[in-house]
Amino acid sequence: MKAVQFRIARPTNNLAQIVRFYHEGLGLNILGEFKGHAGYDGVMMGMPDKTYHLEFTQHINKEPLPNPTKENLIVLYYDTPEEYKKANEQIQKLGIIPVEPENPYWKGKSETYEDPDQWRVILFNGIYSPE
After folding, report:
1. Domain CATH code at residue 116
2. Which percentage of the chain shows pLDDT scores above 90?
3. If you average pLDDT over residues 92-106, what whole number do you get?
4. Rounded to 10 degrees, what is the CA torsion of 37, 15, 43, 111?
């Protein structure tokens, strides 16, 4: 089987703040959104090629949600030091400051941030290569 897209979806009770963090702070494109669908509002955001995206949904009742661990991570890779620096400056303009990573692997080569739900996003200075 060969999938051609993937989406990671999770609920939030802070949809407006989540959109601000991922769209304004991290520069993800808003790919689609919906309101009032069986009690849910949602926003899909992703990379420019639309093959990878995140979906955040919020139910009208705002039920309690599970807390993430400090190892629930989304990692964004930047292929030049200039783009990495620019990304960190952009999110910090929103008053969001880096937090200490749980895993020491990330120290010295990335910055870790928490979104409004305390899920962690790592901005990595470089690209991943499985080789």
Report:
1. 3.10.180.10
2. 87
3. 97
4. -160
